[in-house]
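Pilot study result, target chain (86 residues):
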Amino acid sequence: MTSFEVDVVIENKPGISDPEGETILNDLVLKGIHKTVSKIKAAKMLKFTIKEKDKKTAQSKIQEICDDLRIYNPMVSKVTFSCHEI
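Predicted structure:
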């Protein structure tokens, strides 16, 4: 079995409001210290390690974990992940 380090990112789909990102952006603009920033999107990230026989199997298992845990709403969120051997 091979160990893989996994990063799962959950973010709103395009067109879905992101109040958290908007609040962070407004705070930066109001402070006047980062005027070149024009858009911020907030996201959640999960990091974990998984052991599987190969990368393809690990990727299938990661998708299954995300779906089984219901860690996102597929109507408004998208999930992307990466894994690399450690």
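One observation from the pilot: Residues 2-85 form a domain with the Mth169; Chain: A , fold (CATH 3.30.1280.10). A full batch analysis is planned for the follow-on phase.
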